[in-house]
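> call design_seq(struct)
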């Protein structure tokens, strides 16, 4: 699976994606195990470089581009 990252190195994720770093968002009424309900996700209208409201970024440090590059090398 090929991952994509935004200009700041954050992993771009669809709302139904989920990884091992998932933690429920404090404000989620039903903490479904998907990125949309994760405290690390950013699904916001101010993400102008994202093409859809159903795509966001993961702000967890372990999912950043530079760490993914280190794992490959």
């Amino acid at each position: 699976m090929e991952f994509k990252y935004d200009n700041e190195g954050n992993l771009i994720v669809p709302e139904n994606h989920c990884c091992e770093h998932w933690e429920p968002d404090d404000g989620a009424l039903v903490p479904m195990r998907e990125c949309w309900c994760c405290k690390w996700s950013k699904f916001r209208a101010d993400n102008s470089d994202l093409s859809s409201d159903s795509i966001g970024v993961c702000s967890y440090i372990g999912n950043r581009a530079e760490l993914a590059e280190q794992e490959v090398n």
